[in-house]
Amino acid sequence: MRSEKFAxxxxxxxxxxxxxxxxxxxGFRLFQMQILNQTSYQxxxxxxxxxxxxxxxxxxxxxxxxxxxxxxxxxxxxxxITPADYDKKLNSIIETILEVDSGxxxxxxxxxKNFSKYLPIKIKRGISFxxxxxxxxxxxxxPGVDYVVEMHRGYPGGINGxxxxxxxxxxxxxxxxxxNEYYNQGDNIGNTGVEKTYEKQLRGTKGNKFVIVNSRRKVxxxxxxxxxxxxxxxxxxLILTIETNAQRVAEEEFKGKKGALVAIDxxxxxxxxxxxxxxxxxxxxxxxxxxxxxxxxxxxxGKPLFNRAITSIQSPGSTYKVLSAIAAxxxxxxxxxxxxxxxxxxxxxxFFKCHGVHGNVNVITAIEKSCxxxxxxxxxxxxxxxxxxxxxxxxxxxxxxxxIGEENAGLIPDEEYYKKRYGPEWPKSIMLSLSxxxxxxxxxxxxxxxxxxxxxxxxxxxxxxxxxxxxxxxxNIIIDFVYTxxxxxxxxxIFDIVKEGMFLxxxxxxxxxxxxxxxxxxxxxxxxxxxPHGADHALFIAFAPSDDPKIAIAVLVENVGFGGTHAAPxxxxxxxxxxxxxxxxxxxxxxxxxxxENKNVD
Length: 602
Hints:
By secondary structure, the protein is α+β, with helices and mostly antiparallel strands. Helix content is 37%, strand content 21%.
């Protein structure tokens, strides 16, 4: 009896302790959850009821140098899928609505399976209005499916500009790993041209919109009436250096041709026109670029994606004779009284032919007549290393620093180069070909244009560039970019001499007299680059007006023959288009931000 009572008391004590301990633990957990960890759990509860929707900013637009709109933003619909809410059984139905191949959606979802399943994935840009209407009508039966209005690039300026503007491309997973502080899956990023170089200026600042969602993550209402929303900030609008009329004429002249053209304002380094032909249609890159179109570009023998203006290297032909003249005059090897005899060529190991018999010629006549014999003899006096030194001084064998793409520096051979190639006793006759811009010397059209600027400006110039500056809308001002100024340190009288020869090329008895007739006097130099793989390449460099240069230009037309016949007429048309535009357009410094804003239709 006594033991049964003891056992009953013992059980009661144990049960009571269990209850007390359980209550204490429960009380502590409640204290911990409600007091100590209140903020943490409140945040989690908020996450379950409030959804942040990223707001993509408008991308900055492009204007030409006279505030004409060249590149803007055009609205379009993009279908998205949030994997956490989506039922893959819907794939076939949605693929039918989107008019895409079977497996299209699965392929995209698989690409991003390692990313958060709560982030929406962009499935297709530029979907039709009919597809949008169908999504709206069936939204209750399409969990995880929605659409957003995004902005894509439009080109209202009437020019192609494919190698100037560049295009946008959906960011790759590799890029995401490097750029994850700003970009998310499905975001666009500049891939080429100005779009790529000025990506951070153009992209703007993202915002956030907060909404209340139910347990199915369906939006119910705005959170706090939108008072907590963070608005997106549009990217900066860029003022390009391009002059639309000159660019349009250049593009028209290169239709059906291969080659490049670069025109520069000698006063500041502004690129007025830049064409690489053949071009491609930027509108094809505004939404989802079709595989068929990409395949056609990759298979095109003309290589339209290749920017010939800054990366194609060719022998400069006779346009390079002016450089030898500058070097010899600066070194004191010749004066305007110095003459060399041309009997139709020069023998140096073998016979090097001239295209005529010019008799005794000085440096001015040699440039005018493009006399090979004069420059054959001249380079032997200059020497290979001095010739290479002046070549590099005038911008060859190095990049110009233009603000798009990856330039090709070209090649300027010197004695060390030939010793490595042929040995210590390398054949000196090689130099004769170099003197007329043949042999291993190779340059880009951009370098030739910059070289022409330095001649036109008597040894001075600026780093060539495509963007003048950007619009600071916060302060309602235009911010100009600063570019490097160049000064060769060569006596300006030397440039007066070679410029006289270039004037006579067009206006005397030279190799481009057929383009002399017109409103403006043009100074230039023709060139024909030998091509072992087919017809020769035509080249022409020029500046105008001759007495007060406002434009310097270089033209390369591949596989057509003589520079005077095929390249010079193109240069003339572009020069006239630009100089005529100067009469009509108000300089940028006199244009107000208000007028610019009125033209900005996004």
